[in-house]
Specification:
Largest sheet: 8 strands, parallel
Helix content: 25-40%
CATH class: Alpha Beta
Number of domains: 1
Strand content: 15-25%
Radius of gyration: 17 Å
Structural class: alpha/beta
Distance between the termini: 13 Å
Order of helices and strands: EHEHEHEHEHEHEHEHH
CATH topology: TIM Barrel
Length: 279
């Protein structure tokens, strides 16, 4: 079975997503009911909702909407990775509230949609350090050229568990392997970073990729981070840009088919269950 550590839900009747207008293929509702039907057929038995970069004034509302949804009978959602703004003065108070909420498992601030130097600001860095001792994780969603800046954040807060999203977002379709490869190798030297094998079908050429296209990328993160520092995620619905949820799950099983049961269990569910204390 799989634990999906990277599920996005889009409900335009309840929340506003400023970025969606620039991505026509995703500019529509992607609701839990649609996801859950396919997820169960794929062997997914639990999920964490990943923030979807809603309008800043609706960050808390996003968590509350997902919480309400999760309370339905048999719902797969076990918690959220909430949006945050470490660059703002209000982060300290926001952090205090989220620490008291067991439904919140961590934070993410997408860094590849903001100026590269945002994470270098004194307040941003101070607020990342505030997370030490909270037990909340911080997802790093960065492009390969931003990896050095991401590593600087990681080094600032050695007691914070960071999660590197989407295998570090390799530019698979363009074949730009070497710079990404070096960044992964260096990031993996930081023991407080886990790599998320999530939705990389979206970064391949949708018309031509196959299992072997993705294999070098997955094998590199596996050899770099090791079996105890990998988790799996769908990145639904972004993964629909490269084939969809069922395709990505089937590809995942193919990529790890040569590994032992214990190794696969760690990546597919065990590491996530332990990291976020999921039932």
């Amino acid at each position: 079975m799989l634990i999906d550590t990277h599920l996005h839900l889009i409900n335009k009747s309840k929340l506003n997503y400023p970025w969606l207008s620039a991505v026509p293929a995703l500019n529509q509702d992607f609701l839990y009911s649609t996801y859950a039907t396919e997820a169960r057929r794929c062997g997914i038995d639990a999920a964490l909702h990943m923030e979807v970069d809603v309008y800043p004034g609706e960050i808390q509302r996003e968590t509350d909407v997902v919480r309400e949804l999760s309370q339905g009978d048999g719902n797969l959602i076990r918690g959220v990775i909430a949006s945050c703004r470490p660059e703002e003065e209000g982060f300290a108070a926001y952090l205090e509230c989220q620490v008291a909420d067991p439904f919140v498992k961590g934070f993410r601030r997408v860094l590849h949609v903001v100026p590269d130097d945002l994470s270098e600001g004194a307040l941003f860095r101070e607020n990342i350090k505030r997370m030490s001792g909270t037990g909340l994780t911080f997802d790093l969603c960065v492009l390969p050229h931003q990896m050095t800046r991401a590593m600087a954040l990681v080094d600032l807060a050695p007691d914070v568990q960071f999660i590197l999203d989407h295998c570090g977002v390799p530019a698979i379709s363009s074949g730009a392997y070497d710079a990404w490869n070096d960044g992964i190798r260096d990031m993996a030297k930081r023991p407080n970073v886990i790599c998320k094998v999530s939705g990389i079908v979206a970064y391949a050429d949708a018309g031509t990729w196959d299992v072997e296209t993705l294999r070098p990328y997955v094998e590199h993160v596996t050899s770099s981070f090791g079996w105890d520092r990998l988790v799996w995620g769908s990145d639904w619905p972004v993964c629909t840009l490269g084939g969809g949820l069922s395709t990505w799950v089937a590809t995942t099983h193919a990529l790890f088919s040569g590994n032992s049961d214990s190794e696969r269990t760690k990546v597919f569910s065990g590491n996530a269950r332990k990291l976020w204390n999921l039932a």
